[in-house]
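hiii so um. not sure if this is the right channel but i have a protein structure encoded as tokens and i wanna go backwards to a sequence. like what aa goes where. can anyone help
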């Protein structure tokens, strides 16, 4: 969807009802926690490798207002703005609002001519290194179990922190660890699978080094002092693209 540019500021900081910056307002404040829409917008923009300036130019919106929407927790952008930005980001307005967040991923229709290809080990490591949420497969009380954990990659090893409980039982086992990503709008995605021995890191210097290098914090919160490290023996991956 394209159209004429939305109103832009001629100069200074324009404000609308309630004192909020309007479309085209010049923004100079530092980054702050964004709204749910703003965080989803930033995440999708980063997935596509687009800068804020690129999105603003392609959508025909003011860069300052885009920055406001991304950064301001109270931002409530209008439909015209969201339609233009969603088009550039190859998504939809309902998805920017969070539609489908409670549903399993991968519910879209298959592409007309999908292509399934194996990923080279180097590509697998590059995707794995993006840190985030992965799935840990291990044995608990004699039965297989799969648990989501927030992870990082440090010196080629998968690491995560946990409290006493099932994830901590991975230490001493050979486990599997999987990460994936899906683009339901395009029916594309990839997955990477790691297998190898898991161990608990107990050396104080090693723990301090992992804590300093970690970019991800556990979503579950609380005190999670136990660090588990998985050293990959095998790493494989696959990608589905719309042919």
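sure thing!! here u go:
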């Amino acid at each position: 969807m394209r159209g004429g540019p939305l109103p832009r500021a001629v100069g200074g900081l324009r404000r609308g009802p309630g004192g909020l910056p309007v479309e085209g307002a010049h923004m100079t404040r530092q980054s702050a926690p964004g709204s749910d829409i703003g965080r989803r917008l930033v995440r999708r923009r980063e997935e596509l490798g687009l800068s804020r300036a690129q999105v603003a130019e392609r959508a025909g919106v003011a860069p300052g207002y885009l920055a406001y929407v991304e950064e301001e927790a109270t931002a409530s952008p209008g439909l015209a703005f969201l339609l233009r930005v969603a088009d550039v980001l190859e998504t939809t307005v309902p998805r920017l609002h969070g539609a489908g967040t409670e549903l399993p991923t991968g519910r879209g229709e298959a592409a007309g001519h999908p292509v399934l290809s194996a990923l080279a080990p180097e590509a697998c490591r590059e995707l794995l290194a993006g840190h985030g949420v992965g799935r840990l497969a291990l044995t608990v009380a004699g039965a297989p179990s799969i648990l989501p954990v927030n992870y990082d990659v440090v010196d080629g090893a998968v690491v995560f922190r946990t409290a006493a409980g099932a994830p901590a039982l991975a230490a001493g086992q050979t486990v599997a660890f999987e990460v994936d990503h899906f683009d339901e709008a395009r029916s594309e995605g990839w997955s990477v699978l790691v297998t190898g021995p898991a161990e608990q890191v107990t050396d104080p210097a090693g723990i301090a080094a992992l804590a300093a290098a970690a970019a991800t914090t556990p979503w579950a919160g609380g005190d999670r002092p136990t660090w588990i490290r998985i050293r990959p023996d095998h790493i494989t991956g696959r990608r589905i693209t719309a042919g």
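oh and The first helix runs from residue 36 to 47.
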